[in-house]
Design a protein that fits this description.
Length: 247
């Protein structure tokens, strides 16, 4: 029988711990594929902070570092400066990156640190019980806003890609979504470009990926995928900064 698909060299053998319907596993596979295809899988360091991705280092046949909550960009900065020829990336959720880790994220970006951030935006704190995150959309219910996010009480959601794109340090920022096959393919291309820019020492890169959290929002996985269309209206996919394209 002809083999038409298989795991990349970087992909480990441990089953994922993620909830059914979550797209973390898809993104893990894409990272492994991209780095293997770039022949960069022998000199990779992933940084995984607190959150749903806390065990991310177990899923790759590569070095991994666990960081304190929100501190992954700071840890990645240190790693990259020690081993500048290694491919260094962080894997962070929206509660981690856009809340407790916002300072580390902004300053790493504005310094133009030559690291790549993979930013999973599912609009909620997934691991710790479904609390409202900085990216939770207006009207969405969470354990800390059971009546739905209200702008007067809770403020507006943060659009991270748009915000970081205003800084001078980033080389490449794009938002994608893992809602369809086409979306997954675009996400892989975005990750490839981000890692290539790091390889070319162009500076800070980030790919924000709209994801699902059926458990956190108490909905079926199929409904979570459909609901991503609404998220894409508030968080439009596309390139927000690309220094090679002059924007």
């Amino acid at each position: 029988m002809k083999k038409v698909f298989g795991k990349s060299r970087l992909h480990g053998d441990l089953p994922y711990h993620y909830c059914p319907g979550c797209t973390h596993g898809i993104v893990h596979r894409l990272i492994a594929e991209v780095l293997s295809e770039m022949d960069a899988d022998k000199n990779v360091v992933g940084v995984f902070p607190v959150g749903c991705s806390v065990f991310g280092y177990k899923y790759y046949k590569a070095d991994g570092v666990q960081a304190a909550h929100g501190r992954a960009p700071a840890v990645a900065t240190g790693v990259k400066r020690v081993v500048p020829k290694h491919m260094v990336y962080t894997y962070q959720g929206d509660g981690d990156l856009a809340s407790i880790g916002m300072a580390e994220t902004v300053h790493a970006a504005t310094r133009g640190e030559n690291i790549t951030i993979v930013f999973i935006n599912n609009g909620i704190y997934g691991m710790t019980g479904g609390q409202m995150a900085p990216t939770t959309m207006v009207g969405d219910k969470a354990s800390t806003c059971p009546m739905g996010r209200d702008v007067k009480s809770h403020g507006n959601p943060i659009k991270v890609s748009e915000m970081l794109a205003t800084l001078t340090g980033p080389a490449y920022i794009e938002r994608t979504a893992c809602d369809t096959v086409q979306g997954v393919n675009k996400t892989k291309k975005a990750l490839r470009k981000a890692f290539e820019y790091q390889q070319q020492e162009l500076g800070f890169t980030m790919v924000e990926i709209l994801s699902t959290c059926p458990t956190g929002f108490h909905i079926r996985p199929s409904d979570a995928q459909k609901d991503m269309k609404r998220a894409m209206e508030f968080y439009p996919v596309g390139v927000y900064k690309d220094i090679k394209e002059g924007n």
